[in-house]
Amino acid sequence: MYRQVIPGPELEERVASVGAYLIGVTFSRYVFRSGPLADMSDEQLVRHLVPNLRGILLD
Fold it and tell me: Which of 12, 37, 11 is nearest to 23 (CA)?
């Protein structure tokens, strides 16, 4: 399904990397509840994550 909207080579690896990245963010923010990710507002977190996720998926 995501092949229709995400271009480029190594798609499976990039999608797996996004999953691993988001698991790390989730643990830092909601399980450990410490560090800068936990302290960010939802809006700040989105502004921080979008460029990184875009880079993993599209660059």
Answer: 37
pTM over 0.90: no
Which helix or strand (DSSP H or E) is residue 43 part of?
helix 42-58
> Do the Cβ atoms of 48 and 21 come closer than 8 Å?
no
Which residues have a Cβ under 8 Å from the Cβ of 32 and sit 6 or more positions away?
38
Distance CA 37, CA 17 (A): 18
Question: Which pLDDT belongs to residue 5?
Answer: 84
Q: Where are the domains positioned within the chain?
A: 2-58
Rounded distance between C-alpha atoms, residue 5 and residue 55, angstroms:
15
Closest CA to 28 of 39, 38, 18: 38
